[in-house]
Fold:
Amino acid sequence: MKKKIIIIGAGISGMTAGIYALDNGYDVTIYEKHNIPGGQCTGWYRKGVFIDGCAHWIVGTNPTSDLYPLWRHIGAFDLNSTIYDTEYFCKYDIDGEIVTFYADDEKLKEELIRVAPEDKKQIKRFINGIRAYKHIKVPVKKPLDLMNLFELIGYGCSMIPVALHFAMYKHITVEDYLLKFKSPIIREVFHRFFGSNYNIHSMAYVMQALAKKDAGVVEGGSIKVAKNVAKTFIEKGGVILYNQNVDHILIENNTAKGIVLDNGDVIHSDYVIASTDANHTMKQLLQDKYADEYYETRFNNREDYPLSTGLLLSYKVDKILYNQPKMISFKTNPINYEGMIIDELKIRNHSFDASLNKIEGTSTITILINTPDFLYDNLSKLSKDEYNKKKEILGEQIRQEVIKYFNLDSNIISLVDVATPLTYERYTNAYRGSYMSFITTDKSKGLMRKGLIKGLDNFVMAGQWIMPPGGLPIALFTGKHAIIRVCKMDKKNFLDLDYIYSNEALKKNLREPS
Ligand SMILES: Cc1cc2nc3c(=O)[nH]c(=O)nc-3n(C[C@H](O)[C@H](O)[C@H](O)COP(=O)(O)OP(=O)(O)OC[C@H]3O[C@@H](n4cnc5c(N)ncnc54)[C@H](O)[C@@H]3O)c2cc1C
Structure:
């Protein structure tokens, strides 16, 4: 009889784990508290308008990428999918000067030198950093601790071209790095890129992926990706049970034996995988019974290990915005929202993907605003009515700024939705509403963890909390890694079927499975 695996959460990591578990002969059921798959990789309708609530870029969309075989294997996209490559990260309006942060490193170099010739030398160094970063490799195929000596040496050698930059960039914040430039324009652009406390490593990582055309988005948006993956999982024989809130993990003799739902139902299994938020996993699902230094240090020191939290505002514009940039950042009059000051907006124009828009002649724009840690506390103190009212007020203030910037007729733009950290917490149990995991700062230590809990058998964690700063690729390969670990616990060889989509296999003219 097949051994049974229960996976908690149908986000990208949970479903990926499910697919690799099915490949390896397990009987798999996913328990998901929401009524749709995807977790944070999602989209939703409000007032008839579709809002893509996630991917600005998905690293691994280029066939030469290490992540590509995994995305293809879980069916996130296929050869018929339209992938929109990112021509530029963002356009920055700096006092009327538009600076385009091109994905292509040569174009980016020229653009930055154009606006800041005085920083030519430093700009070239930065571009060289991005070029070196193109060699960066995340151990996607298997976790580092499970590699044999030869694999480790191979991995180490592959990192040599980037080693120096990696060691340097991990310990410099974007805020410190921008001081290397004389030009106030360049300083402002870097300041607005991600937020001040990220280390420069995170910026270089994203830029190298964009430069390699390895960070596109899939037509149909994030929810399409999530539904595609759920389809693959179900077609392979997996089961997803929705509206099933897991209360805790059933543990006997320090071995995970199944789950207990919030209605009291007990379901037994041979292994349990939690693909949920780490804080929720440690405190709720494992009932705070297992001390874990890695997470304790991070949860108790949010200054050195801040979280990625944000506000996502969405608007309908009764006009097609094809001629407007896909992403533009501009300064606004300061807006005080529950103690945080908003003075810059990054507008994402979704018109590039017509399949997302069901109302003819209209466009959707979304604005993701990074928020400070205290906002969660301030919002949590509000009554429901106050909270809703303040969201409306903020939505209107920002609407006015957008009208002013784009010189729009005020009748053609309307607020559709405001999601806050409390929204993300409510829907996905995300810790303080964090939409990625810990931000990688100059002080962050230890990049990756195994996803095992000391003293607890037959239990593995998957998902973005295994490796900061989180994001879809980490959800993806930690899902796969979770099953490599289960197979190891079960003393069986891991069957890896994503190889067929790898560049190596494609070069050997192996046929893709139909
Ligand atoms: C606005 C926004 C923009 C983003 N942009 C990008 C981007 O451009 N590129 C990128 O790579 N990433 C991006 N991300 C991050 C990305 O969405 C996440 O990193 C990724 O989806 C996390 O996947 P996961 O499987 O680790 O976790 P989750 O998606 O959080 O999945 C966990 C699942 O577990 C379920 N669950 C939780 N608790 C329970 C319980 N007790 N019982 C049952 N089920 C439970 C949740 O409902 C959820 O479905 C963005 C996220 C947001 C919100």
Summary: The two ends are 29 Å apart (CA to CA). The chain has three domains: 4-41+58-76+219-303+442-506, 104-212, 310-433. The mean pLDDT is 94.
